[in-house]
Specification:
The chain is an alpha/beta fold. It has one domain. Strand 3, helix 3 and strand 4 form a beta-alpha-beta unit. It is globular. The mean pLDDT is about 90.
């Protein structure tokens, strides 16, 4: 398993609050995963973590500027919302 798929780094969980997803941290993992051709596994692990959350707040969203990264993250977040999850402002 690569460093890019270290699941504990995806979501910051706090009791009674939305999970927090740092786009900066995820983007850095994405760059690592690109080097080892593990981007599919990275986003599969993120999707798995998102299934355990009820609501998520994104931080550091300026890191979504790169189109390929944003497209993969948007797909993961769309699936999260379609399954009943909420994105918090």
């Amino acid at each position: 398993m690569t460093r890019g798929v270290n699941r504990r780094d995806f979501l910051l969980l706090r009791a009674g609050q939305p999970a927090v997803l740092s786009c900066e941290r995820l983007f850095m993992r994405y760059l690592d995963a690109e080097q080892s051709d593990d981007t599919a596994r990275l986003f599969a692990a993120l999707a798995d973590d998102l299934r355990r959350a009820r609501s998520v707040r994104l931080v550091d969203t300026s890191w979504r500027a790169r189109a390929d990264f944003d497209r993969r993250l948007t797909d993961a977040l769309d699936a999260f919302v379609e399954s009943g999850g909420r994105l918090e402002p």
